[in-house]
Amino acid sequence: MFKGGNGKEDVVNSPDKLNRLVEGTSITGDIKADSNFRIDGKLKGSLDTLGKLVIGPTGRIEGEVKCANADIEGEFIGNIIVDGLLNIKSTAKIEGTVTTNQIGMEVGCSFSGSCNYIAKEDAPLIAEATRQLTEEDSEVVY
Question: Which listed residue, of 65, 66, 87, 112, carries a Cα 20 to 30 Å from 50's Cα?
Fold first, then answer.
């Protein structure tokens, strides 16, 4: 009848707690959310969410992103930190720095930049590792 815990997990993964930026909508600024976020429009700025990020086929983000998990079908330019799994779909175009715990890339996607793998136990170090990243330290993972 009652669930234990602090309730954060229920809020993050609840289907009725989905934030959405629809096609034809553009935002310039910073967004912070506790739940999942889907972008089919355009965002220029930063997005920090405790949930999953989905960039739809018509979606575009230019800026900084931090999220729990992500599926990218559209365009992303900037730096993205994914604490869990990053899925890059065949229609995705990514330019920038990716830092993640797990990555999946479909044939046909476009990726230009660097990818850093951080083990789950080192997750608190992700932000610091990204800040200290230099070109000599980076490598592209295929």
Answer: 112
